[in-house]
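// run 5 | inverse folding | seed 20
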């Protein structure tokens, strides 16, 4: 579970409710079925108009990505794995990695390792796997666009809701008390539009982009590790190559931990 997504939404709601209370407005005013229908149903209608159905069907999966934890290997996990493969490849040959390929859970990494075992050329492996990464980025970009568009539509629909509410309020000019309540209710739609647009949909789009960038980076590191094994580079060289993807302070910690293990051994 991605805790930051949940914490962000909870904090956003608390800010909204707390802000209204501090300003002297009753949070109960947020319960406005008409405003909720205009904003949420209206945004859904806009998305249906803007995107084909096969893309809209992906929305539930996008929410899983937003609120689920990414299951990707970290660089620290990949370093011993690739150095181990490099040692096996140099001692026993690339074919010795065939059994290890079946044990790999990541589909992208497994596919790449099988190509290495099959003796595919470096250029062929790089081209195919980079195309795979590019296709993944395109799919993820589409998902982010859906939420970006939703974030654009929602505030405008809020204005539409306010106009509808004001039209209704003008029918109560003879009752000042009711007129005030109607005008207040009219702007709840604007509030929901701005809130959902800039606290939910646009941040969702940004979260999807960041997760996509992280996944693409991990896959690129996997590709570099596989190519290093394919080239027959020494395990130490493979390790140094992968360490470059870690921040400088983490590289130092890795070296210290390794030295500590060697001393203890």
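// decoded
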């Amino acid at each position: 579970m991605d805790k930051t997504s949940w914490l962000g939404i909870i904090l956003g709601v608390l800010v909204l409710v707390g802000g209204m209370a501090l300003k002297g407005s009753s949070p109960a005013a947020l319960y406005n079925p008409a405003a909720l229908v205009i904003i949420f149903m209206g945004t859904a209608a806009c998305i249906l108009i803007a995107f084909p159905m096969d893309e809209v069907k992906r929305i539930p999966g996008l929410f899983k990505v937003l609120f689920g934890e990414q299951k990707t290997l970290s660089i620290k996990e990949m370093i011993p794995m690739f150095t181990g493969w490099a040692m096996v490849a140099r001692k026993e040959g690339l074919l010795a990695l065939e059994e290890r390929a079946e044990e790999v859970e990541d589909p992208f990494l497994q596919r790449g390792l099988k190509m290495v075992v099959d003796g595919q050329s470096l250029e062929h492996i790089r081209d195919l796997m980079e195309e795979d990464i590019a296709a993944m980025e395109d799919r993820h970009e589409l998902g982010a666009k859906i939420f970006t568009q939703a974030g654009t539509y929602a505030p405008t629909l809020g204005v539409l809701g306010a106009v509808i509410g004001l039209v209704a309020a003008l029918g109560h000019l003879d009752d000042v008390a009711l007129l005030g309540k109607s005008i207040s209710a009219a702007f709840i739609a604007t509030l929901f539009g701005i809130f959902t647009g800039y606290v939910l949909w646009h941040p969702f789009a940004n979260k999807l982009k960041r997760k996509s960038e992280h996944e693409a980076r991990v896959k690129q590191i996997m590709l570099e590790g596989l190519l290093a094994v394919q080239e027959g580079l020494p395990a130490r060289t493979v390790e140094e190559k992968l360490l470059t993807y870690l921040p400088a302070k983490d590289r130092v910690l890795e070296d210290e931990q390794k030295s500590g293990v060697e001393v203890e051994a």
